[in-house]
Design goal:
It is a single chain. With 88 residues, the chain is an all-alpha fold. The chain folds into two domains: 18-56, no CATH class; 57-88, no CATH class. It is built from three helices and no strands. The protein has helices spanning 26-36, 42-55, 77-82. Helix 1 crosses helix 2.
């Protein structure tokens, strides 16, 4: 086999909406909440993140779990938001 002169590197693309929170990571979630709500001071930023959490959380009075994997309670906030829609 010969080595190719050209290496094809896969590119990662991320598509987001400028009017909804980016839930790909906790940092991205916080940054997008601050940007969308146009928070400037630290207090405004904290309130923006809190309101974003409230807007993306659904209260169902059921603990989100994965019995097939013997997981009684999902503790990963990114998985909770992206897979289960932020149920509490």
């Amino acid at each position: 086999m010969q080595k190719s002169e050209y290496q094809i590197k896969p590119k990662t693309q991320k598509i987001t909406c400028n009017r909804w929170f980016d839930t790909t990571s906790l940092k991205a979630f916080g940054q997008s909440a601050i940007k969308i709500m146009e928070a400037k001071t630290n207090e405004e930023k904290a309130i923006a993140v809190w309101r974003a959490i409230q807007q993306t959380t659904v209260v169902t009075n059921k603990v989100t779990s994965e019995p097939a994997y013997h997981i009684k309670y999902i503790q990963n906030p990114i998985k909770l938001r992206n897979v289960y829609g932020g149920h509490c």
